[in-house]
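Hey, resending since the last one bounced:
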Amino acid sequence: MNGKIVDLSLDIYHAAPTFPLDPKCAVIVHHTVDSMGYNISQLVMSTHQGTHLDAPFHFLDDGKTVEQLDLNKCIGDALLVDLSRKKPKEAITVEDFAPVAHRIGEGTRLIYRTDWFRQYPQKHYFSDFPYMTIELAEWLAERKIAMIGMDVPTPNPTDFDPVHKILLQAEIVIVEGLANLGDVGADEFFFMAAPLRIQGRDGSPIRALAMLK
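The structure tokens again:
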């Protein structure tokens, strides 16, 4: 594919912010050219740092772990819905997807844009974003979509438990912390969000990309 590539990922750097109870991010110099003849660094961070995806095991002890995911769910053609009109702490509902409901069904990779990533790394990035309702999570699960992506840090800051469980029990891959969706310029594009092959665990940081013709 020789078209345009849009990077949809947040930066990873030393002390990059996280949710208050999550592991803190550290990017540590281990050796340098002067000390060893080459530069090498140590990374210490959450499996949910920055732009990342959730596997079902994140909330379900019997759910698939990240290395067991079907990569077809998070790599392929995606549908982008522009919700950038949404205000802080405003609900994202089923009605917001009504204009494209006929395009959302089994196997759909669905992404919504709020432009909330612009608030990163401020503290309120993790609390005041437009949020997915429980009813919307149920609607997406009923439609058997493959993936839901978003440019907010998590679908819902208060009802995070039921919303995650509804989506993950339906084996919907959740991609969180996207960025730069306004640069895509199309409502359909090839999306790639490959996780690290972390054995037996709950999620992974990703380098999310939009690939355009």
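The chain has one domain: 5-211.

Sorry for the duplicate.
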